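Intended use. Records like the one below are meant for learning the mapping from a protein sequence to its folded structure. Do not use them to infer anything beyond what is encoded.
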Amino acid sequence: MAPDINTHAGLASGRPALRVVLISPQPYRAEISTALASVTEPLLELHQAEPGAPLPAPGGGSDVVMFVFDRERKEALPVLSGQREEAAVRIALMHERSSYAIREALRAGADEVLFLPLDPGELARALVKISESRKPREPVVKGRLLSLVSVTGGAGVTTTAAHCALALAHTMGKKVALIDLDFQAGDLCVALNIEPDHTILDLSRSEVRLNSVQVESALCKHPSGVYLLAAPKRIEESEQVGAARVGVIVDLMRQMVDAVIVDLGRHISDASVVVWENSDEVLYVIDQTIAAMRAAWRFTDLFGRLNIPLQPRFVLNRWTPRHAIGEKHIVNTLGRPLAGRIPRDDEVMARVAARGEDLWNTAPRSALARSYEALVREVAGFERAHHQRGGLFSKFFMRNGARTRSKT
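Structure written out for the chain above:
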């Protein structure tokens, strides 16, 4: 039987209509059609068919298939089993309200059950829910992912990661989160002078589906506004944090903040590779030693064999101008320019440690602070300072007392 097409007024406005196919015996059709005609939101395009007839789909598939279900006669089942539309939501319309009848309708392939006579509010609720789910989703905006590593012990990966995060927060007004994946050392909390109540271990149960609220609850907040996802408190607990789980956590955190900075330390693992594969920048931290040059070459060779479509960039830490291994020698040896050069300043770092405050509260105009600011401008991919604290994810992160210091 050819379908009767009843299009609601208003389709010419250009708003998409929900395509509904009604499979109903004649005695119920007028009643159900009248109920559907009373629905003003969403707009409906209604097609009708007899039980057992092919599903009509002029101009494309259906969004909703509604069928009268009688568990004694089951006359709609041949249509549903033979011509199922995977994209369509199937709504069973039935008189009987028993739990047994509902189970039978669901077993017959229904996704939703509504009772006859149709309640206008329940009908509208079900159709609006389906219509909203059909809207194209906006692309997810992800923050920048920077990962720092060095296979040379003592190069200063943790200190560099912490100060890059602080530079982004203080001078660019960015929402930043740090992740400590250097499970053996776990020193980011020391670098930030904070004691976390929660760690990444709280998010490690792979059978639990994570969301942003759960991730936010595991973070510790620094007075600057930087957030930290700390390493497990015990080294042996790190075995419970799988690489796949790390990937999920990193992806969620990128949706919550402007930048995620990961301290990978010196120990390379499956989790390191997962982070590198998703990074916008991989920063390898070196110092002015022969051992650091050799280790950097070994790392570059490994990184190339991983077939990651990204080249690591080098950051020279604790730079001393008159050192025997100068910057020019390092650049020639590595075969590429440095992404940043962080001067050695023991006096300023001693003052930072003595005061228990970060570099931008202690010496904001120092050459050390300015070097970190130059580094994040080079690698983070942001425009210069936007000092606005509100933003897209303020419901997750309410800034309490964080200040942006102007550099003049």
